[in-house]
Amino acid sequence: MEMDLKTALAETIAAAAGLPAGEVLEMIETPPDPKMGDAALPCFKLAKELRKAPPVIAQELAEKIEAPDFVARAEVTGGYLNFFYDRKFYAESVLQMLGKAREDWGRSEIGAGRTVVIDYSSVNIAKPFHIGHLSSTAIGSALYKIYQHLGYNVVGVNHLGDWGTQFGKLIAAYKMWGNDDEINRDSVSAMLKLYVRFHEEAEQDESLNEQGRAWFKKIEDGDEEALRIFGWFKELTLREAKRVYELLDVQFDSFAGESFYNDKIPAVLDELREKNLLEQSEGAFVVRLDEEGLPPAIILKSDGTTLYATRDLAAAEYRKKTYDFYKNLYVVAYQQNLHFKQLFAVLKKMGHAWADGCEHVAFGMVSLEDGTMSTRKGKIVLLEDVLKKAVEKTLAVIEEKNPGLADKKKAASDIGIGAVIFSTLSQSRIKDITFSFDRVLNYDGETGPYVQYTHTRCASVLARHEDTGAQADLTVLENDDAFAVLKLLASFPQTLVAASEKNEPFYVTRYLLDLAQAFNKYYYEYRIIDDNAAQTKARVALTQAVKDTLKTGLRLLGIKAPNKM
Ligand code: ARG
Q: Which atom, in ligand 1's list, is nearest to the CA of 133?
């Protein structure tokens, strides 16, 4: 919408100036202060091309332009040509588009025919699903939904950490001290206990490590018993992870983990050899990355075993072959920066131009402010516990604020879990987060519950409205507060595109806060429903558009939008 208006404006300017419309479109800005106009053309860049001073260019253009209908007037201020929209016309166009799109607002076809692979969450077998996985899971899942909304074909991959010598040790420990009932009951925490005990006893008895290696060799060789036990551990770990995915409403299209690539590694090694990239160094095989200013990537250890990086090489090739991706994203903590730089550099050295479509979507650390759950040594904060605690605390808030609410448990879950997701996505992903329950659950702060609450406010207004069939009188939306809401509504599609370009779901959380704040300001200043049916109709249409857009935005982040809370 906004985009369409801008394009139309750019075309008329381009015609008057004798410039390509695309170039003009890129130059059009939104003035920081609405008093300066709704769109502005800075004429400074044109000065060279047109050999005139910017204010002169602005003045000449102002006289020549056949402004489109929605432009009420154009004004010259210094080197700027400022455009003021016809607000009634604007309101009509925006509400018409939104009335048609409803909860599909922002859906587009710009991604049609393109596939985006997103590697996210990627938990490790026999390891707890801890708070550190929250960001990867929430960011990846939000990007998944945003890309999908933009028409891309999306493939969500959970690149399970299911390969490595530690699994040999785990099986050795199980064979010595394992108790099936306990493992079935406590799954990962029981496995963790076995693992810890193994390490303690191995300090006294070196032969244990020998047993661990022997069991890992058995896994590698496809020994039936080893695979059965390992498969069982895997299943239990996944069962636990899936409980969290259900709470968070997160899905995957593939659980192809590290072990999936074992039989695909020889071909990668052959390719590296053929391309003369593999060099021997202190017994190991490496790819040198001196020119790239990176340390060499180790591909094979001296004992012939493969590494995390080797499997990622095979995985990238497999993803290209299988999905022919346009983008291949890795939502992984910034601690792995070097790993991904090396991975992409090796792919490039192999001559794969598609390495440019690979991107490390890095994020910072999450820690808890709450003392009782701090990540003290050995004390791991389980994500499931964090989510449960958020729901519990929310239930307490509901009991206090709205004890008569129907289905309080469901509401507490929608709000509590939504709050955790929203806060995780509330800032540029690269920043570290300190998580505080009190802050993220605050209905009045810049939080998920605040956005959800604004949505319920819209819902309750709409529930009270009875349609009289009157023709909407859009002049009541010409005031600054309503106009600010309309402009935000119009910019939702661009916000989604920007979020996908930068892989920043936080653009959407920021947008939702802005929209909620703008609507609430309007709501405090104006009565939506009054005796004037035609005016009410216009304000109700605005409320409906806000409700739909808040709901869509929340949905794209993986957050529910209840009608009551
Ligand atoms: N399992 C890894 C970890 O927890 C993350 C895997 C990320 N994906 C990848 N293709 N390397 O650190």
A: 4
Q: Is the CB of 128 under 6 A from ligand 1?
A: no
Q: What pLDDT was estimated at residue 360?
A: 98
Nearest to 211 by CA among 169, 251, 266: 169
- Counting Cβ atoms within 10 Å, is residue 237 exposed (0-12), middle (13-18) or buried (19+)? buried
Q: Is 92 in the pocket of ligand 1 (CB under 6 A)?
A: no
Check residue 378 and give its pLDDT.
54
Q: How far apart are CA 349 and CA 297, in angstroms?
A: 12
The distance from CA 64 to its chain's CA centroid, rounded to whole angstroms, is 45
SS3 83: strand
Query: What's the rounded Cα separation, in Å, for the pair 514 and 518?
Result: 6
Amino acid sitting at position 540: V
In a domain, 286, yes or no: no
Q: Which numbered atom of ligand 1 lies nearest the CA of 312?
A: 10
362 and 333 Cβ atoms separated by less than 8 Å: yes
Cα–Cα separations (whole angstroms), residue 448 to 126, 144, 451, 499: 32, 19, 5, 18
Asked whether residue 123 falls in the same domain as residue 197, the answer is yes
Burial of 494 (0-12, 13-18, 19+ CB in 10 A): middle
258 is a domain residue = yes
The reply to whether 181 and 224 lie within a common domain is: yes
Q: 190 with 183: CB under 8 angstroms?
A: yes
Residues with pLDDT less than 70, the chain: 1-4, 370-379
Q: Which of 559, 426, 454, 441 is nearest to 517 (CA)?
A: 454
Distance CA 86, CA 59 (A): 21
Query: Whose CA is closest to atom 5 on ligand 1?
Result: 122
In this structure, is residue 468 part of a structural domain? no
The string of pLDDT tens digits covering residues 289-327 is 999 999 999 999 988 888 999 999 999 999 999 999 999
Helix or strand holding residue 329 (H, E): strand 327-333
pTM above 0.90, yes or no: yes
Give the torsion sign (CA, 504, 509, 513, 518).
Answer: positive
Residue with tokens 């590694």: 265
* Residue 120 near ligand 1, beta carbon < 6 Å: no
Neighbours of 305 (CB within 10 A): 12
Tell me the C-alpha distance between 181 and 167, whole Å.
20
ipTM value: 0.99
Query: Which residue has the CA at smallest separation from atom 8 of ligand 1?
Result: 159
- If asked whether residues 159 and 253 sit together in one domain, one would say yes
Residues 502 and 327 sit within 8 Å (Cβ to Cβ): no
Report which protein residue has its CA nearest ligand 1's atom 1.
Answer: 161
SS3 29: strand
- Measured on CA atoms in the order 17, 21, 26, 32, is the torsion positive or negative? positive
How far is it, in rounded angstroms, from Cα 32 to Cα 39? 10
Show the domain range for 245. 115-266+306-363
Identify the pLDDT of residue 3: 57
Within 10 angstroms of residue 26's Cβ, the number of other Cβ atoms is 11
pLDDT of residue 366: 84
139 and 53 belong to one structural domain:
no
